[in-house]
């Protein structure tokens, strides 16, 4: 121990010489000293740290002012928001409100963002939460381009578009075709489409049918949402879907290189179990686990696009849908058996290895895209499913299988030809070689690992270096916070031969399912809305902007009182607003700040009004002043020495 520590201290000295550890250790003479006076060795003893602990700390410690190498975008699960985390520090940088109102950003409080939330909600039934599962960064030539990120809401079958110019949600769409989605979101290599797949089958379009008509009336579907990159929006009118059998379609992935133009989607419950315990039927979990094989779906989306253009669709809930019969007749849909309750399907960087893992299997099955295309060409099918979808022979479709362990789930890739698969039941990350399909290593994590996210690990050019294990159970890892425990993200250094866990990060907000990690150099944000008076949703000058104090005014019009307000350190102008009880009030608040980070907030007490007005931004909010009284309003961000004085009064005269 003594000797090992000596060696470490020597190594730290070398690091210090290069400035790496300079901020942490002040290096005086032989032994580097901590500024508090204790040596590294004393500190290690006092805190009971091993050499491995200190090495891990050096790999992740990020001194003040030093920035991140990668950004991890993690879904916020039922928190309905997107979490932005720096790597390797694992510092949380932002929660982006997406499916849930988020007060700090004023998201869901001003008219523009209320409209975004309403856009994806059924008419008259506002949804105030979402079950976010899988973020997908926009891609150009199958690599992340850092422009947009898409996310799904599994609970309500919604898809959101978030711009990475300002890290804000711009759009939420809901098809009305399906009730629930797990298989979203996945993008095609140039973000032509955002893919969303139904999980729990139901009659398409939201119709009613009893469960005993499950086989006939219930269906799955895969939706192709057309993305307009220049507009930064999904165009629902140009989107379409393919009807699928009522299996439980699971995760998908879009092909790349040779397999570009195809999408791959898993399914479970090809048994078509429906539950029904009261009638003596098997529970869904066991009913859905009878068959040894389920079906990997191969979908030729490029050809399907042509079929849609040719008008061979029917319209359901306003969406063009290719029927199952048409999909089969046009050669758009094929099945390949896949072992027991498959979950992840992850296309390797070479574009031809299609890796599928089964939750109740022990292998990663590597399908060969070229072999499957040849089988389709030769019409070498081993039959069809009950709906007539041709099934390719299993063995002939495989390149091979790798025995990984109990409950393999999801696979990611690095820059050296290695694949990493999460092993749920064993709580391990398996490292294996794509070249010869050999298992190389297994790293233990804590506990019940779900997804993993390696740096650009599902793109054409993965970056290696880091991998985050997203562990669903924390059990004994952190101080107790009661029966509801945080999730545990563990950062692994994958740059060496053996992956090592270097950091534990509890994540206390919803269950993050998947995350994607992008090199920060690809992210080009704006740091304020310029010129002042911008609407953050349209990114255009807002017609209600008030760009100078001279233009501040209160106007009474047919539709109520319009307040054209300016915010600048440290006042709100106007600072007194008088209205009559029952009047409709429209506040148009513009920040004319042009200093970085000089954000103001605006709230009106007891009226549930709360805005975030970053430099240059315009927020519009409308409410009815239905309660008489005196209601102070103020700025909610500590913006200056006179922040507490940045306030005023709304006076509502009794009618
Ligand atoms: S999955 S339960 Cu992404 Cu493994 Cu959702
Ligand atoms: Cu503006 Cu406080």
Named once each, the bound ligands are: (dicuprio-$l^{3}-sulfanyl)-sulfanyl-copper, dinuclear copper ion
**Percentage of residues in strands:** 35-45%
Major sheet attributes: 7 strands, mixed
State the low-pLDDT regions, or none: 1-5, 13-29
Number of helices: 10
Query: What radius of gyration results from the CA coordinates?
Result: 28 Å
How far do the termini sit from each other? 81 Å
Shape: globular
Class by helix and strand content? Answer: mainly beta
| Oligomeric state as shown | single chain
Number of strands: 43
Helicity, in percent? 10-25%
| Mean pLDDT across every amino acid position | 94
Structural features, described:
There is one protein chain. It contains 10 helices and 43 strands. Strands 8, 9, 10, 11, 12, 16 and 17 form a 7-stranded mixed β-sheet that branches. A hairpin with a 5-residue loop joins strand 8 and strand 9. The protein is 12% helix and 39% strand. The N and C termini lie far apart (81 Å). Residues 1-5 and 13-29 have low confidence and may be disordered. The structure holds (dicuprio-$l^{3}-sulfanyl)-sulfanyl-copper and dinuclear copper ion (CUA). The site of (dicuprio-$l^{3}-sulfanyl)-sulfanyl-copper has 10 residues, from strand 23 and strand 27. Residues 570, 600, 635, 637-639, 643, 646 line the site of dinuclear copper ion (CUA).
Secondary structure elements and pairings:
Blueprint (H helix, E strand, L loop, with lengths): L1 H16 L22 H7 L4 H10 L9 E6 L5 E7 L4 E6 L13 H9 L16 E5 L2 E11 L4 E6 L4 E7 L6 E7 L5 E6 L15 H4 L2 E9 L4 E2 L5 E5 L3 E7 L7 E7 L15 H4 L5 E8 H9 L4 E3 L2 E4 L1 H6 L3 E7 L2 E6 L5 E6 L4 E6 H9 L16 H4 E6 L4 E6 L4 E6 L4 E6 L4 E7 L4 E6 L11 E6 L15 E7 L6 E8 L7 E5 L14 E2 L4 E2 L11 E5 L2 E9 L2 E3 L2 E5 L3 E8 L8 E5 L4 E5 L4 E7 L4 E6 L12 E7 L2
Parallel strand pairs: 12-17, 35-38, 37-43
Antiparallel strand pairs: 1-2, 1-31, 2-3, 4-5, 5-6, 6-7, 8-9, 9-10, 10-11, 10-12, 13-14, 14-15, 15-18, 16-17, 19-20, 20-21, 21-22, 23-24, 24-25, 25-26, 27-28, 28-29, 29-30, 32-33, 34-35, 35-36, 38-41, 39-40, 39-42, 42-43
Bound molecules: (dicuprio-$l^{3}-sulfanyl)-sulfanyl-copper and dinuclear copper ion.
The site of dinuclear copper ion has 8 residues, from loops.
């Amino acid at each position: 121990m003594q000797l090992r520590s000596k060696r470490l201290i020597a190594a730290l000295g070398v690091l210090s010489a290069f400035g790496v550890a300079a901020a942490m250790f002040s290096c005086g003479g032989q032994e580097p000293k901590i500024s508090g006076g204790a040596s590294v060795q004393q500190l290690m003893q006092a805190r009971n740290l091993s050499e491995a602990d200190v090495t891990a700390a050096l790999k992740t410690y990020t001194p003040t002012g030093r920035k991140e190498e990668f950004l991890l975008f993690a879904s916020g699960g039922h928190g309905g928001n997107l979490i932005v985390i720096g790597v390797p520090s694992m510092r949380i940088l932002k929660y982006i409100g997406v499916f849930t109102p988020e007060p700090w950003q004023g998201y869901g409080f001003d008219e523009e963002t209320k409209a975004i939330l309403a856009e994806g909600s059924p008419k008259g039934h506002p949804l105030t939460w979402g079950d976010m599962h899988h973020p997908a960064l926009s891609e150009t030539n199958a690599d992340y381009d850092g422009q947009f990120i898409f996310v799904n809401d599994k609970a309500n079958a919604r898809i959101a578009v978030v711009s990475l110019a300002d890290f804000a949600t711009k759009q939420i769409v809901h098809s009305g075709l399906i009730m629930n989605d797990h298989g979203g979101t996945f993008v095609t290599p140039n973000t032509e489409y955002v893919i969303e797949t139904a999980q729990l089958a139901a009659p398409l379009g939201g119709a009613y049918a009893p469960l005993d008509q499950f086989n006939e009336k219930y269906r799955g579907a895969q939706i192709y949402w057309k993305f307009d990159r220049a507009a930064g929006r999904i165009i629902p009118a140009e989107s379409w879907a393919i009807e699928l059998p009522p299996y439980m379609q699971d995760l998908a992935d879009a092909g790349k290189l040779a397999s570009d133009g195809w999408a791959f989607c898993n399914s479970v419950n090809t048994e078509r179990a429906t539950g029904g315990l009261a009638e003596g039927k098997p529970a869904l979990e066991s009913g859905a686990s009878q068959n040894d094989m389920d079906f990997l779906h191969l979908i030729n989306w490029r050809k399907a696009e042509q079929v849609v253009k040719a008008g061979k669709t029917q319209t359901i809930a306003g969406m063009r849908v290719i029927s199952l019969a048409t999909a089969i007749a046009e050669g758009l849909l094929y099945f390949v058996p896949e072992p027991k309750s498959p979950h992840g399907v992850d296309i390797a960087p070479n574009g031809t290895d299609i890796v599928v893992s089964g939750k109740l299997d022990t292998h990663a099955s590597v399908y060969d895209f070229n072999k499957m295309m040849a089988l389709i060409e030769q019409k070498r099918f081993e039959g069809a499913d009950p709906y007539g979808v041709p099934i390719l022979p299993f063995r002939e479709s495989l390149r091979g299988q790798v025995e990984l362990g109990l409950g393999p789930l999801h696979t990611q890739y690095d820059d050296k030809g290695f694949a990493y698969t999460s092993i749920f039941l064993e709580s391990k990350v398996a490292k294996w070689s794509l070249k010869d399909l050999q298992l190389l290593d297994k790293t233990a994590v804590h506990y019940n690992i779900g997804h993993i996210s390696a740096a650009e690990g599902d793109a054409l050019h993965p970056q290696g270096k880091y991998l985050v294990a997203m562990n669903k159970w924390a059990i004994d890892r952190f101080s107790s916070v009661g029966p509801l425990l945080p999730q545990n993200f563990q950062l692994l250094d994958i740059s060496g031969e053996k992956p090592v866990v270097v950091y534990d990060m509890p994540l206390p907000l919803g269950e993050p399912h998947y995350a994607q990690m992008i090199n920060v150099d690809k992210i080009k944000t704006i740091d304020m809305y310029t010129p002042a008076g911008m609407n953050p949703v349209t990114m255009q000058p807002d017609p209600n902007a008030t760009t100078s104090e001279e233009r501040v005014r209160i106007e009474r019009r047919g539709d109520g009182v319009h307040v054209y307000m300016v915010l600048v350190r440290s006042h709100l102008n106007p600072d007194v607003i008088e209205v009559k009880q029952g009047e409709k009030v429209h506040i148009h608040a513009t920040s004319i700040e042009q200093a970085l980070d000089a954000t103001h907030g605006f709230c009106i007490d007891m009226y549930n009004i709360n805005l975030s007005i970053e430099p240059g931004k315009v927020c519009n909010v409308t409410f009815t002043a239905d309660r008489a009284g005196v209601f102070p309003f103020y700025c909610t961000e500590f913006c200056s020495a006179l922040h507490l004085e940045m306030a005023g009064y709304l006076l509502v005269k009794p009618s």
